[in-house]
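Tutorial, part two.
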Amino acid sequence: MPPDLIVYALVTAGLIFWLRSILGTRNGDEGDRAAPYLKPDPAARALEGPGASRSGQTGSEDRIAELAANPKGNAFIMDKTVEMGLLEIAASDQSFDIDRFIQGAQDAFVFIVESFADGDRDTLRDLLAPVVFDAFDGAITARVQAGETLHTEINAIKRVEITAAGLEGRLAKITVRFIAEEVTYTRNTQGDIVEGHPERVTQMRDLWTFSRETRSRDPRWLVTETLVDTQHDSETLPNSTSVIH
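Running the prediction step on this input gives:
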């Protein structure tokens, strides 16, 4: 194997390991059963964020309040109601870290969007709840049967805004609005572009819901719902798209 391909493979493997250490892994055959205990390793612990304070708290509540009052970079908490929902989750799950969640959600967004374009079902199965995976899988199958190929590349995630958060029993649910700039286009069997353009940047606006059982040993936050965001503002570009075209 050429040296440059070896380097590429190592970098790719490293990124996948990092993402899965943040959001967890899925074997694909668990169904609705609880996942087996995932033993933490040093790499995962290094990504846990701030440790417990002298009072025994993680400091997550303070960080949520700080982020709500002063957005950091492209990350926002929409309003006080959302802030209170995040605080409810943090109180129920002492391992919850808002910064770690936001970073992991952004990484998952890029992996999922680009894996969908590539038809990479294995990566999608690791990050999506079964019902969401089935929808993505069906769209990939339809695309293949039509003889079409999709290319999508995320140029930048302009905004990551938490729009809803809270507990439903022991289930923590966090909805995130992603506003991203992408280049996407589709080719037919003859190689002609039938949708999009390789040199045109469009805006993608989606609402994704991530869910996790707070008392579960399984650390995974899975995407349990994806919706096209129909709210438009001054940031909207002329063309908007979603994951599944």
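The mean pLDDT is 78. In part three we will examine how such features are distributed along the chain.
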